[in-house]
Amino acid sequence: MLAFVTDNDTLEGGCTCRRVRYRLTGAPLIVHACHCTWCQRETGTAFALNAVYEAGRVQHIAGEPELVDTPSASGKGQRIARCPHCKVAIWSNYPGTGPVLRFVRVGTLDEPRRCPPDVHIFTSTKLPWVVLPPDAVVFPEFYDLEKVWPRESLDRLHRALARACPG
User: Fold this and answer.
1) β-pairing, 119-121 with 30-34?
2) pLDDT by residue (tens digit) across 104-156?
3) Candidates 2.170.150.70, 3.40.50.10580, 3.40.50.880, 3.65.10.10; correct CATH number of 10-164?
């Protein structure tokens, strides 16, 4: 895993018009480069790059995003937080974790270079002209979190899920 962001760091980002701004606390759980055809279509580019954070580590510091429910390849949909003015997607929630995790669009960070992908997923539908580094961690579809995520990230995930669903 690349460690460009430590758990003592903060990152900031926002939409194009700067009406919606946010701050991230600490390192992401993981950073996905998703090459599925759905992400290609939704983003209008070759893949989506998402830094996965617990919702409590994402603080709105200016404006509030508009939550838009959209369809997804799974059929379960996703909720995308967009700037109500410029419509830039800031983060998504997926049905598996609901509001507990936010998949923050790395391109909306002020310093996106600090969040390179840890894993490339759904590479079975990767565009053929996208060349991945030889040392990239690659999965044709998704993967088993317990086998891929660092122990610290798994512990944070389990704590976040326990807070969301106590008992």
Assistant:
1) parallel
2) 999 999 999 999 999 999 999 999 999 999 999 999 999 999 999 999 999 99
3) 2.170.150.70
Q: Is residue 24 classed as helix, strand or coil in its secondary structure? A: strand
- Is the overall model pTM greater than 0.85, yes or no? yes
Phi–psi pair at 33, nearest 5 degrees? -105, 105
Contacts of 110 (CB under 8 A, 6+ apart): 11, 12, 13, 14
Distance CA 13, CA 35 (A): 23
Whole-number mean pLDDT of the chain? 92
